[in-house]
Every structure is written in structure tokens, then in C-alpha cells.
């Protein structure tokens, strides 16, 4: 039989490990940097790059808050304020939240599934390069002083050539299309990896909830991102080539843009939020030392959210004067989407209820998340109530609401996840004490910064204003909000310093610092390039809790099982398993490091630069590089993938 | 436990702030002076009650759940099954609340924005960054100030010939967007007299923050007086200074962009100035309409509202004085 | 610890599956097709949205699209799926000759369609800047034509590999995935054609 019951990593000894190291290692230095396709290196890169954007865009938020601290303030003028507002929103959504979750997905998902890499490692690298190049592309606008100022949502006709003639908005529109490639390719990779790469025995009802959440996110991406690509793409066709999509004088429609934008925009909220709940669903059970309550309910809720999220987009357009009957449908669906979140919420409460909660830093962020998301969810349900929405939409109430959801309920889990998984990624622990300090600063600062904004909305303060007069009762709350913003920023800075310290001087973490239940804790910290010398065999939802010692498979002569054992790692292979019951089905030759993804991404970047500066030659060069790289890729496919 | 007080503290802050703020002069949606704002404030107070209850109860559950296993070895057992938590807390209770919210939505939206007989029709066009206001039945124009009679149904037609704006008077009701290529109508009634702050609520570019206006709700009689006065052509300037000012107005670039009914000034780029002397504010509710601000605005409005379309007008101090006197005489 | 553990014996979990599962590239292409379908669905939705917000469609001065020639070449495109099917079936049985000629046949039919499309664009009396109708027409039909064109380019790579004998009964995932793409592009035309060519005739 294809199995030994003794953990084979140890029996195979040190010699093998060294040999494997050699087989799997990237070239050292710069060549390795550009050619690596290791999901762990790519995942880390995603996280670091995204956090760079987080801190830059957070500093911009502090400048905006300083401007709004007092009435009639002159820290920045309206022009700069509008640019900061646009960059802050666009960066946080497209260049921080989405990619940082993709980063965690990249790093953790293959480890949790018990495989040696993603299904398409080269596409994975490609998707990272696209992300970073589109980020550079977007921020280039800021560096040359032509930052876009149309708001992160880029409503037409304000963003059309007639009202924004400069190159500024082209940076924005093209960057949206550009970065969409990365998100889409990443989603395909997550879906295929989840369905085809699970360790034997990890049937679909034993998949960790984090994987379910990434899967749900990936499906939403597939169906949502084309809409924003279209919205920004049609806008750019109008801007660059003079088509008439958004020009009402020529039969175009300004509302078409809004429909397309929000058809993506609302699922996008869940694209960000769902993986964050997946992180929470990993952290809470481990810290409460018991399995997640109502696993099937939670998994179903994650899938349900993905479906329902496509029926709510019009609630962003309640004030556009559509017929009330048509809008009522969307109002109702927007209320219904509360239910899947309610299910998850009480699954977490039930988990803690019967467990024994350890108040570690990840758990603090988890509880902070629960308290914040509770309010964000409640205000979200309120916004679905159409007449109420007429009053508060585009007011500071909405700013408060979505910061409770996108900052509180997404950034808090991400910080929790850093404290939770960084020991696995680096082999070193972050300081718990500084983690606690960071959490409390962030939690207090967050509520100071954003709670008052609910009230500001009630007091009639509209969104996106660069300044306001005194005497409207807005002054104190804005000052408090600014102070809170700075406290929050200091809290994130504490974690940055904590990371910096742990990176070089942190205490060793060991394989399983939290007594976790999923497979990533069974390998070393940091994991070897090949993740698992022998693939673990799963017989439970919580293999590390229920299967001691964790059995690992060994190879046999069969094509389907030959890569299960250390021989598979030696041959640079990983097993392919069936979609639902995860039975061995075949063997995948994992590709070796290559520059192809980087070249392909560069070709696309050059193409976009050509569009931006309207230089046909540059566009043609980019397209040519793209075609060459693609052809090369297709040419080698039969060599690398059977 | 520090976290235990958080939800309570939040609720207290919320309540006290609302009480505190109602005494200030905020354009507050919970200080309604119009039919729509009243209905929506009612919906809000219902939701506020529900939300507070939900937050306190669920927040309490979170805190209790987090701490109740402390000091035990394997957690404290409970007779409540995991799925019961999910069924009751995650499905049944929220579903009941959602049904209530749904009913409130249907009830409120059915009673709002319905056509009524004999409305006062007003046309508002969003400009960058001010509001052109006209009364089609009375046939006169004004800007940045909407006068309405209390109690009579109002129908405001909303259009834009540039970018999207949104018309919002928090104390009277919710927003309606001004969308190029689409004619929207907002129907409501004012229930109390007063002067209410209105705002552009859709980001519309550089001076979005300074695109505000006033709604003056007055008794039917005083509205009629106001409207009647506007239907008369402007009389000749009363004083010599004002007469000089009129000459300056026609000679300087002013008339190219502004209209003063009864004169040869027919410009349409800037706001109609026929009643500028009686308006409360300048620059779309940016500064009060005083002699000083008016002079300042004429000489260089870019220092007050950078980026607006009016260029600086260099005038001798005599001319400026006369022009200001003339404009302030236009009631 | 967990009650749900229906302890499956380890040997059973690692026993190879009997039936043949789909290879990973198949799944990848299926995902790509899903997202591309959404893109085209968005364009078709935009078409009807613009149409619903216009008084006259097509706008004054533009005739309804000519159906006859378009229909003929539509059948040429749809017909190209047949040699593609033949090619796939051929290589599944290890018949490289059938593969080569099937691919070639599909390529010729596809090329004929692209040639017709370019001719048709040339013949149209409106541009894509004049009005929203022109914009959405050129964008959608053009994007579809570009997809066919891309298919032809990819086909060249696949054909060269086929002629060099790189495919066999066991190793031909490129052919499988490429054929999926080709059928998808044909299927898109099944929706784009009625929307853009036929529906303007329905008043």
C-alpha cells in the first residue's frame, strides 16, 4: 500500500533534506529574485509590497485628516486634497487590501492543502509582477505631480476628457484595467489549486475554512472584475480614442458606468471581507482550543455570500432617481446578505462560548474585529433601507460605515493574521507585549477616528469635501477623528517595529507555536521550498489535533501516486487529486524557476505605458514582447505540464 | 475586563452626542423640518433602537463568550448546541429584524416622493460649482437660494449640463442626483419655517466642498411677496452711487457672464444677479453677503474659492464702491 | 477531538482514483472562460442599456446591419468547431494526421471569418466616435474578432508543434485547452451575432 504510518520526513533523514534543498532552491541573488516561482516567496512579496502601499496611503490619510482637523484649514488646498483622496481610496482597495489577501492566500493555501506549490506557479509569479508593475504605474502619476483627482470610483462625466483633460485620469483608468489582470489570474490559480491539489483524504468537507473563503473570493473575482475592467476600459476608450460611451450628447449614458462599476464594486467589498473572515475562522478556533462551530454552515455562508453579493449593487445608486419599484428589489437583497454574515458571527461566538480563549495578540485582533464588524454590519443593514440611504449616502455616515468594514473588519484580521502566521513564515515570533500595545492603540484610535464620523454624517457633513466652514457643529468631532487617526497610525507603526525586531531578533517559533489544527503547522517554520517531503494523509478536518502522529504517504510505482512520497519531491513533482474526494489522480511536474512571467508582465506594462502616452510604437513594442513571451510559454507547456 | 465597557460606552457617547448636537445649528437629519426628513428620522429612530439592542446584546455575547472559559481546563461546557447559536443568533433573530426593516423600507418609500396636486415647480441646474434656480411658472431666475412656501407640495426638477451633482438639504429630506442627460424630480413639503443649509453631495471636482446653497422656507404669504417682487423688472438705481455702479457693471466684464433682469446684462455663465442684494450668501454659500465680502469677491474671488470660473476684476476703488452699492441695491 | 472525524483509513485515501479527472490546465481554461464570458455579458448588457436609454436604435442615419453575408460567415465560424472536434478526437486516439488536418481546417475557416469581419468593418458607414451605437458595436464585435484572431495566432504555435510531432495520445493537453478556447470563441458569437446583427431589426 502507498502508505507508511510513521512520519516519513524524519525517517528520511538529513541527507535527503539537503539534496531536496538543492533540487528546489532558486538561483541566489538577483537572478533568483526575478525568476522565482515559489509560492512562499511570492506570497511574502505580495504582503510586503501591499504593506508598503498601506503605509504610504495611510500617511496620505493622515494629511487629509490634518486638513479636516479644523474648519477652513489650509494644510492642503482642494486640488491636492482631491488627489490624496483619490490615491488613498484606489490604493487601499486595489493595491493593499486585495493583494495582501492574495499574499496570505498564496503563502498559506498550498500549505493548508498539503501540496508543494500552486497549480500554476508561473502564472502566480506573473500575477505578482503585474500587481507590482501596475502599482508603480499608478504611483508614477503622483511622482510626476499629475495624480488623478476623480475619486476612487471615478464617476463619469467628471472623469471624461471634457472635465479632466490632463493625463492624470488616464493613470487611474489604465491602472484599474492593468491590476485587474493580476487579480483575475490569481483567482484562477486559487480555484484550480483548491480543487486539484489537496492532500489525499482532504475531502471537500475537510477543507480549512480559510481555503473556503479564498475559494469564495476567487469565484467572486472571476465574475466581478470584468465589470470594473469594462467600466474603466470604456472610460479609457472614450478618453484615449474619442468613443461616446459616457457622452450623453452622443447617445452615451453616465449611469452605465455606475452600473458596471458597482456590479464589481459591491462584490469587491466581499472579495476583501470574505478572506478576512476566513482568517478569523482559523484564528478563533485555535485560540479557543476547539474546532470551529457549525463548519458546514460557515462554508455554506461563504458560498452564499458570493452569490448574493451580485444582487446588491444598485444600493450604491439609490439617489440616482431610478424607479422605486426597481430599487426595492436591491434593497431587499441588500438586507438578505446580512444573514450569511450573521451565521458566521454566531459560529464564532459559539466557538468561543464552549472553548477556553487564550488572549494572544491574534485573538485580540479577532475580538476587536468582532466588536467593530458588528457595528459595521449593523450600519450596512441600515444603508439597505432605501429612504434612510437617501439621507446618509455620500455623507460621512457612509465613510464611517465602510471604514468599519474595510478597515476594522479587514485590516484587523490582517494584523491578526500577521501575528498568527508570521512565526510560520519566518520561524520567529513577534513580541506579544508589543502586539498587545499595538492592538490597543489601533482599537482605541480606530474607534476615535471613525465612530464620530457616523454622527458627522447625521449632522449633514457630505463626503469628499476638502474643507468646511465653522459653526455647523462639525468642529469637535473632526478634531477627535483626526486625533484618533494619528493614534491608529501609531498603533500600526508599533506592529511595523515589532516586525522589524522579530525579523532579525525574534524568538524561534518552532513548527507549531499556537498548537494549530491545519497542515501548515506540520511542516517546519519557515517551511522548506518543497513544503512537504512526503505529502500528509488527511482523515479529519483538524488533522493535527485528531491524527497524532500525522501519517504521511509514500510513493508507489503508479502514475497517480508516484509523487506522494519524498521521491515526488526529488523529482520536483506534486500530486494531483480529484476535485471532491481528493483521491490521487495524477502527477504534476512543477515548473522550474523562469524569467517568463517577469518578461510577460513587463511586456504588458510597456503596452499600458504606450496607451498612456499614446505612443503607438511603445504600444507595439509592448504587444510584441507580450506575444513573444506568450508563444514561448505555450511552446514549453507540453514540456512542463503533462 | 476593559472590553466589556466598550459597547455600553459607545451607546452612551452616541446618545449624548445626539442630544448635544441638536442644540447646535447643524444641518442635522434628526432635526427634521420637512415631510421626507420627518419620515426618515422616524425610520432612523426605529433602527437606532434595534441597533442599540443588537449591539449591546451581541457585543455582550462576544465578551462573555471570550471570558467565560477562563480558568477552566477545557472550556466551560454548555447545554446550548453550536447549531442552536447559529440558528437563533445568526438566522432567526436577524431574519425577524430584517423583516421589520423591510417593512419600514416599503412603508416609508411608498409615502415619499409621490406626485401631488398643485405643486410649486422649481428647476435647479447644477453648475460648477453653484446652483441655477428658476421658477418656471412665475418666470424668474435666481441662484444658490431656493425659497419655498411651508406646507405646499414642492417639485424640484434637477438637471446638470456638466458633471453629476447631488441635491441635499438634510433637514428637509434625502438626496437626489443631478445627472447629465437625465431629468430627476424631488417631491417634498417643508413643515417648518426656517433657513436650511443645502449641499452638493456628489463629488463634482475641484470646489465640491464649496458648492452649497440655502433653502428658505417661509409662510405662504411671505413667499408670495418674495415671488411677486422677483417677477417685477428691476427699477432704476435709486442713488447716484448705485447708478454709477450700474455703468461700471455694464462696462466691466460683469455683464458678459451675469444677468440682471431689466438691463442689458444677459450673461449666462455665472449666476443671475437680479436679486443679489437680498441674498444671504455669496459664492454658493461660501461667505456671508456683506459689503466687505462682496468687494473681496469682485476684486479676486479666487482667494475665497480657488478655481471658480470668475476671473479677478481689477477696478479703481471708486468704481468698486459704486459697483458694490449698485449690487447691494438689487433686491 | 472533533466529532466529524469519520476516520477514513489512510490506505484508502491514497488509493488512486479509478475514473479520469480533468487536468489542471482544463480547469484553468474553464475559469478563464467564465471570466471572459462575464466580460462579453457586460458588453451585451451595456448594449441593451444604451439601447434602452436611446430614442431610436440604431440612431438616425445608420442602417440596420446587413444580415445575409454576416449569417453566411457566422456559419463559417460556427462550422470551424467541427474540424476542431475532429482534431481533438484524432489525437485522443493518437492519430496525429487527423490532428494536423483538423487544426488546419479550423484555421482556414476562422481566417475566412476574420477576413470577412475586416471587410465588414471597412464597409460600415459609421465610425466608433460618432455615437454610442458605433462605440459599442465596434468595441464588442471588434473584441470578438480580436479573440478569433488571437485564436488563429495561437493555432500557429499548436500546429507547428503538431507537425513536429510533439503531441501524442498521452500528452496533448495543449490541444485540449486550445480547442476549449476555440469553441468558446464560437459560442460567444452565438450571442454577439443575434444581439448586434439581428436584434436591431426587431422594433
Q: How far is the first residue's CA from the last residue's CA of chain A?
A: 25 Å
Number of strands of chain C: 0
Which whole number gives the mean pLDDT of chain C?
A: 90
Structural class assignment of chain C: mainly alpha
Series of H and E elements of chain C? HHHHHHH
Q: Please state the CA-atom Rg of chain C, rounded to the nearest Å.
A: 22 Å
Query: Could you describe the largest sheet of chain C, including whether it forms a barrel?
Result: none
Percentage of residues assigned to helices of chain A: 55-70%
Outline of chain C, from the CA principal axes? elongated
First-last Cα distance of chain C: 67 Å
The percent range for strand residues of chain C is: under 5%
**Number of helical segments with 4 or more residues of chain C:** 7
Low-pLDDT parts of chain A are 1-15
Main interface pair? A-B, 90 and 101 residues
Main sheet overview of chain A: 2 strands, antiparallel
In short, what is this structure?
With 642 residues, chain A is mainly alpha-helical.
Task: Please supply descriptive tags for the structure shown above.
heterotrimer, A: about 650 residues, mainly alpha, two-stranded antiparallel sheet, two-stranded antiparallel ribbon, 21 helices, about 0% strand, disordered N terminus, C: about 200 residues, 7 helices, elongated
Fold blueprint:
The complex is a heterotrimer of chains A (642), B (331) and C (203).
Chain A lengths: L2 E2 L3 H4 L1 H12 L4 H7 L3 H30 L9 H36 L7 H23 L24 H29 L12 H33 L12 H35 L6 H14 L15 H13 L1 H16 L7 H24 L1 H7 L3 H31 L5 H27 L16 H31 L37 H4 L5 E2 L12 H5 L2 E5 L6 E6 L6 H17 L3 H25 L2
Antiparallel strand pairs in A: 1-2, 3-4
Helix pairs in contact in A: 4-5, 4-6, 4-17, 5-6, 5-7, 5-9, 5-15, 6-7, 6-20, 7-8, 7-20, 8-9, 8-10, 9-12, 9-13, 9-15, 10-12, 13-15, 13-16, 15-16, 16-17, 20-21
Chain B lengths: L5 H17 L12 H33 L14 H30 L8 E7 L4 E5 L4 E4 L1 E5 L4 E7 L4 E4 L7 E3 L5 E5 L5 E7 L11 E7 L1 H12 L8 H12 L2 H4 L23 E2 L4 E2 L2 H10 L16 H13 L2
Parallel strand pairs in B: 1-5, 4-10
Antiparallel strand pairs in B: 1-2, 2-3, 5-8, 6-7, 6-9, 9-10, 11-12
Helix pairs in contact in B: 2-3, 5-8, 7-8
Chain C lengths: L9 H5 L9 H29 L15 H12 L1 H12 L3 H28 L8 H32 L9 H26 L5
Amino acid at each position: 500500500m502507498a502508505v507508511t504510518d510513521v512520519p516519513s520526513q524524519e525517517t528520511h533523514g538529513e541527507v535527503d533534506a539537503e539534496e531536496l534543498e538543492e533540487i528546489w532552491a532558486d538561483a541566489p541573488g538577483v537572478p533568483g529574485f526575478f525568476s522565482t516561482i515559489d509560492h512562499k516567496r511570492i506570497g511574502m512579496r505580495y504582503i510586503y509590497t501591499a504593506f508598503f502601499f498601506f503605509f504610504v496611503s495611510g500617511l496620505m490619510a493622515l494629511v487629509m485628516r490634518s486638513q479636516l482637523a479644523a474648519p477652513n484649514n489650509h494644510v492642503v488646498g482642494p486640488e491636492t486634497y482631491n488627489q490624496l483622496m483619490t490615491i488613498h481610496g484606489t490604493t487601499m482597495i486595489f493595491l493593499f487590501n486585495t493583494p495582501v489577501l492574495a499574499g496570505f492566500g498564496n503563502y498559506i493555501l498550498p500549505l493548508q492543502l498539503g501540496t508543494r506549490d500552486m497549480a500554476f506557479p508561473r502564472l502566480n509569479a506573473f500575477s505578482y509582477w503585474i500587481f507590482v508593475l501596475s502599482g508603480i504605474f499608478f504611483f508614477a502619476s503622483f511622482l510626476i505631480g499629475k495624480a488623478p483627482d476623480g475619486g476612487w470610483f471615478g464617476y463619469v462625466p467628471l472623469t471624461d476628457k471634457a472635465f479632466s483633460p490632463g493625463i492624470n485620469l488616464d493613470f487611474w483608468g489604465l491602472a484599474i484595467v492593468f491590476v485587474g489582470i493580476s487579480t483575475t489570474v490569481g483567482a484562477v490559480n486559487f480555484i484550480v489549486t483548491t480543487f486539484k491539489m489537496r492532500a489525499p483524504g482532504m475531502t471537500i468537507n475537510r477543507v480549512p475554512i480559510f481555503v473556503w473563503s479564498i475559494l469564495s473570493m476567487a469565484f467572486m473575482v472571476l465574475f466581478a472584475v470584468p465589470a470594473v475592467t469594462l467600466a474603466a476600459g470604456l472610460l479609457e476608450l472614450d478618453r484615449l480614442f474619442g468613443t461616446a460611451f459616457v457622452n450623453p450628447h452622443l447617445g452615451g449614458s453616465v449611469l452605465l458606468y455606475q452600473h458596471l462599476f458597482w456590479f464589481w464594486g459591491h462584490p469587491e467589498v466581499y472579495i476583501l471581507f470574505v478572506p478576512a473572515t476566513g482568517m478569523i475562522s482559523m484564528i478563533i478556533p485555535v485560540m479557543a482550543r476547539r474546532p470551529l462551530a457549525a463548519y458546514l454552515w460557515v462554508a455554506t455562508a461563504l458560498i452564499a455570500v458570493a452569490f448574493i453579493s451580485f444582487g446588491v449593487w444598485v444600493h450604491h445608486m439609490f439617489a440616482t432617481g431610478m424607479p422605486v419599484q426597481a430599487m426595492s428589489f436591491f434593497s431587499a437583497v441588500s438586507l438578505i446578505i446580512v444573514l450569511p454574515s450573521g451565521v458566521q458571527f454566531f459560529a464564532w461566538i459559539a466557538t468561543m462560548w464552549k472553548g477556553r480563549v487564550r488572549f494572544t495578540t491574534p485573538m485580540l485582533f479577532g475580538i476587536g474585529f468582532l466588536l467593530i464588524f458588528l457595528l459595521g454590519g449593523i450600519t450596512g443593514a441600515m444603508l439597505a433601507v432605501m429612504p434612510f440611504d437617501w439621507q446618509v449616502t455620500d455623507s460621512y455616515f457612509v465613510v464611517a460605515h465602510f471604514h468599519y468594514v474595510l478597515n476594522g473588519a479587514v485590516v484587523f484580521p490582517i494584523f491578526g493574521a500577521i501575528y498568527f502566521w508570521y512565526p510560520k513564515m519566518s520561524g520567529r515570533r513577534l513580541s506579544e507585549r508589543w502586539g498587545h500595545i499595538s492592538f490597543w492603540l489601533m482599537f482605541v484610535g480606530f474607534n476615535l477616528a471613525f465612530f464620530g464620523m457616523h454622527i458627522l454624517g447625521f449632522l449633514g457633513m457630505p463626503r469628499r469635501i476638502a474643507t468646511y466652514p465653522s459653526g455647523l457643529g462639525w468642529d469637535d468631532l473632526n478634531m477627535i477623528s483626526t486625533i484618533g487617526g494619528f493614534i491608529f497610525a501609531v498603533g500600526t507603526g508599533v506592529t511595523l517595529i515589532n516586525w522589524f525586531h522579530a525579523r532579525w531578533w525574534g524568538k524561534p517559533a518552532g513548527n507549531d507555536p499556537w498548537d494549530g489544527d491545519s497542515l501548515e503547522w506540520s511542516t517546519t517554520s519557515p517551511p522548506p521550498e518543497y513544503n512537504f517531503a512526503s505529502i500528509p494523509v488527511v482523515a479529519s478536518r483538524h488533522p493535527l489535533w485528531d491524527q497524532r502522529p500525522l501519517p504521511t504517504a509514500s510513493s508507489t510505482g503508479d502514475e497517480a501516486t508516484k509523487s506522494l512520497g519524498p521521491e515526488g519531491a526529488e523529482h520536483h513533482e506534486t500530486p494531483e487529486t480529484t476535485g471532491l474526494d481528493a483521491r490521487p489522480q495524477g502527477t504534476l511536474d512543477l515548473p522550474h524557476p523562469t524569467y517568463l512571467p517577469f518578461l510577460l508582465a513587463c511586456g504588458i506594462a510597456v503596452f499600458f505605458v504606450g496607451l498612456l502616452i499614446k505612443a503607438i510604437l511603445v504600444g507595439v513594442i509592448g504587444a510584441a514582447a507580450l506575444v513573444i513571451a506568450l508563444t514561448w510559454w505555450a511552446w514549453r507547456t507540453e514540456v512542463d505540464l503533462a | 475586563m476593559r472590553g466589556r465597557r466598550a459597547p455600553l460606552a459607545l451607546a452612551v457617547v452616541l446618545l449624548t452626542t445626539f442630544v448635544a448636537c441638536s442644540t447646535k445649528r447643524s444641518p442635522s437629519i434628526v432635526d427634521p423640518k420637512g415631510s421626507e426628513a420627518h419620515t426618515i428620522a422616524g425610520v432612523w429612530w426605529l433602527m437606532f433602537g434595534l441597533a442599540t439592542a443588537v449591539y449591546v446584546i451581541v457585543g455582550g455575547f462576544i465578551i462573555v463568550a471570550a471570558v467565560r472559559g477562563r480558568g477552566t481546563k477545557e472550556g466551560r461546557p454548555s447545554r446550548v448546541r453550536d447549531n442552536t447559536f447559529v440558528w437563533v443568533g445568526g438566522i432567526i433573530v436577524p431574519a425577524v429584524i430584517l423583516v421589520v426593516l423591510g417593512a419600514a423600507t416599503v412603508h416609508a418609500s411608498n409615502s415619499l416622493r409621490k406626485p401631488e396636486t398643485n405643486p410649486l415647480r422649481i428647476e435647479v441646474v447644477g453648475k460648477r460649482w453653484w446652483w441655477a434656480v428658476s421658477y418656471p411658472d412665475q418666470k424668474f431666475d435666481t441662484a444658490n437660494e431656493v425659497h419655498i412656501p411651508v406646507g405646499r407640495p414642492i417639485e424640484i426638477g434637477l438637471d446638470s449640463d456638466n458633471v453629476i451633482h447631488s441635491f441635499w438639504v438634510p433637514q428637509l429630506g434625502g438626496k437626489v442626483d443631478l445627472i447629465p442627460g437625465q431629468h430627476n424630480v424631488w417631491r417634498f413639503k417643508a413643515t417648518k419655517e426656517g433657513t436650511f443649509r443645502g449641499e452638493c453631495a456628489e463629488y463634482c471636482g475641484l470646489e465640491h466642498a464649496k458648492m452649497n446653497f440655502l433653502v428658505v422656507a417661509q409662510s405662504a404669504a411671505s413667499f408670495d411677496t418674495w415671488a411677486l417682487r422677483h417677477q417685477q423688472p428691476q427699477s432704476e438705481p435709486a442713488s447716484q452711487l448705485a447708478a454709477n455702479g450700474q455703468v461700471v457693471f455694464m462696462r466691466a466684464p460683469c455683464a458678459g457672464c451675469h444677468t440682471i433682469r431689466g438691463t442689458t446684462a444677459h450673461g449666462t455663465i455665472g449666476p443671475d444677479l437680479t436679486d443679489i442684494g437680498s441674498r444671504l450668501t455669496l459664492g454658493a454659500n461660501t461667505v456671508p453677503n456683506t459689503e466687505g465680502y462682496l468687494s473681496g469677491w469682485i476684486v479676486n474671488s479666487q482667494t475665497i474659492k480657488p478655481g471658480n470660473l470668475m476671473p479677478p476684476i481689477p477696478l479703481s476703488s471708486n468704481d468698486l464702491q459704486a459697483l458694490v452699492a449698485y449690487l447691494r441695491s438689487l433686491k | 477531538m472533533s466529532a466529524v472525524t469519520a476516520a477514513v483509513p489512510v490506505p484508502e485515501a491514497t488509493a488512486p482514483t479509478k475514473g479520469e479527472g480533468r487536468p489542471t490546465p482544463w480547469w484553468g481554461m474553464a475559469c478563464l472562460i467564465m471570466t471572459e464570458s462575464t466580460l462579453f455579458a457586460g458588453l451585451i448588457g451595456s448594449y441593451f442599456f444604451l439601447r434602452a436609454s436611446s430614442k431610436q436604435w440604431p440612431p438616425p442615419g445608420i442602417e440596420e446591419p446587413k444580415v445575409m453575408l454576416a449569417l453566411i460567415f457566422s456559419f463559417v465560424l460556427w462550422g470551424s468547431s467541427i474540424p476542431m472536434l475532429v482534431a481533438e478526437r484524432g489525437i485522443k486516439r493518437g492519430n496525429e494526421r487527423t490532428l494536423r488536418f483538423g487544426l488546419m481546417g479550423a484555421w482556414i475557416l476562422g481566417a475566412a471569418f476574420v477576413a470577412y469581419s475586416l471587410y465588414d468593418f471597412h464597409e460600415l458607414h459609421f465610425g466608433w466616435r460618432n455615437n454610442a451605437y458605433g462605440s459599442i458595436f465596434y468595441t464588442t464585435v471588434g473584441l470578438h474578432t480580436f479573440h478569433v484572431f488571437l485564436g488563429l495566432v495561437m493555432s500557429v504555435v499548436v500546429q507547428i508543434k503538431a507537425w513536429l510531432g510533439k503531441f501524442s495520445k498521452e500528452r496533448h493537453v495543449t490541444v485540449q485547452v486550445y480547442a476549449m478556447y476555440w469553441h468558446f470563441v464560437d459560442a460567444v458569437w452565438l450571442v454577439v451575432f443575434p444581439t448586434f446583427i439581428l436584434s436591431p431589426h426587431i422594433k
